[in-house]
Amino acid sequence: MRLRALDLLIAALLGLEGLPDFEPLALANTAYDPQGPIGGDHARGYAVGNRGRLRDTTAVHGGIGAEGGVVSTAEETAHFLVSLMQGRLLGSGQLGLMKESGFWSGGDATGCGDVAYGHSGGGAGFKTNVWVSGDGKRVAVLLLNGRGDGVAD
To answer: How many CA atoms lie within 13 A of 74 on its CB side?
Structure first.
């Protein structure tokens, strides 16, 4: 049920008439949790101040809606990206538009004979960087749970 909101949000952002179906991905630790406390087991986010002092910023959300509202694990984020790039979520035309739309930091040459598509996001206590090959065979997800005090994405 929690992913239904994610389905609707992505469909609206991409201008899709039909909704992508995330249920087959079995994303048990992914939720659309846009404001307030994060439900379930999760990492804590910290702002790192002077002399290494930590301030818990887990519940701080500077964005609205999906901007900071999708909460997931590195493993499930990677699974989603592989499924996306291998055409299990969108049609080839929609995926092609997504690759060309400016959403990704990307289409960057990797030196491995392919291109990688990346995106990043974060807030006061978290930062996520993702890169996935155009064919979905390689993926990297970096999740950080500590950032310099006052740093926003």
So the answer is: 14
